[in-house]
Amino acid sequence: MIIEIFTTALLLLTLWFLWENRRRRSSPPGPLKLPLLGTLPQIFAASPVSYLAMDKLSKQYGDLMSIKLGFVDAVVVSSYDAIKDLCQKEETLGRQCDGIWWDRNLKKNQGLGFSNDEPWAEMRKFCRDSLRNYGFGSREAMEYLVMDELLELVKYIDQHRRRHPEGRIKFSTNYFHFSFANLMASMLIGKRFSYDDYDLQELLVHGHNFIKNGIVGAGILTAYPFLKSIFPETSGYKTQIEAMYGIQRIAQHMLNRRRTEDYKMNPRCFTDDFLNKIDEDASNPQPIFTADNYKVVFGDLMQGGTDTTGNSVNFTLLLLTAHQDVQEKLYKEIENICGIDKYPSLEDKPSMIYTQAVLLEGYRWGRILVHGLPKKVTEDFVYREYTFRKVDNRISILLKTVCKLM
What we know:
Helix 2 (about 40-45) crosses helix 3 (about 50-60), helix 11 (about 235-260) crosses helix 13 (about 290-320) and helix 13 packs across helix 15. With about 400 residues, this protein is α+β, with helices and mostly antiparallel strands. About 60% of the residues lie in helices and about 5% in strands. A hairpin with a 2-residue loop joins strand 1 (about 65-70) and strand 2.
């Protein structure tokens, strides 16, 4: 009996290796793929930090590297030219929406960040047009919103400074997250939050928890999705789901509040426009604009417009703290060009060469995103004599390597 089981297992293993080896001939090079484990052992051996492991392995196998995370095949792209070529292909325009992202989309093809085909195209066009109506993309309108929020931020920090007996403040990473969340809120719901507002505080906490716990369990859950049901707490899945529902509860609250306003005759924000589209789409048997879709889009825009931007500013401030000489030169340029009685404006930008250089250096060092959002192959295609398959290929963009070229 034992011999039969061993023989059968050996035969299946041999067939698997033959089949996998045949596919490898037309795929980009990469580590040896093992049954059940894929290339996870080699990835963990290279580094316990996933993007460092990918960076190290890419130097060995090239800017197109095949990997297998458990049962999931992927190609890691790590050079500027390859990323540019592949992201421009029509066959790679798909968004990979599974696992926690499918749950976040309420198990529907909706939202902005992880939807596909007509729902994505329709929502993208609507979001672009609506946000433009309320200042997005307009130099004058955005500068007004930014300056207004900046004054509120300075006032808030000054209040904290006055409370300290020695006039000091304890730096909080939330300061700039408050500001950027309010910039989005001004366009999304037509008003800004007080920095002490409960909804604003909850939005930031839920957004932070969603991202933080995704880092803990994302790789394992991508490789073995069924583990989220077995180890929901250890994998971080439970906390992510709670954070997702928290953000969507606030979104529903904002939608209900705007419904009580005169949104039809006097639309004043993105949510008003969305409510009008919900009313127009109500007779459609498969409506794109629904309350559920609004909740997902609200989360996409708030998180996309708050976390990465706020973290970039925080990182630049940390760099300035570590480099006092740069901080002093920056202060002198601002003082010389703007004086001490006025805030810098976009009109001053051409004259503030050193300030622009400091900001660009902060962006270069502050690699807030080291992985781009995974792309889905929608049709088989060939690139550099390698075959990318619709059935089993997702494309992972390694941004860390590209940052070195900037």
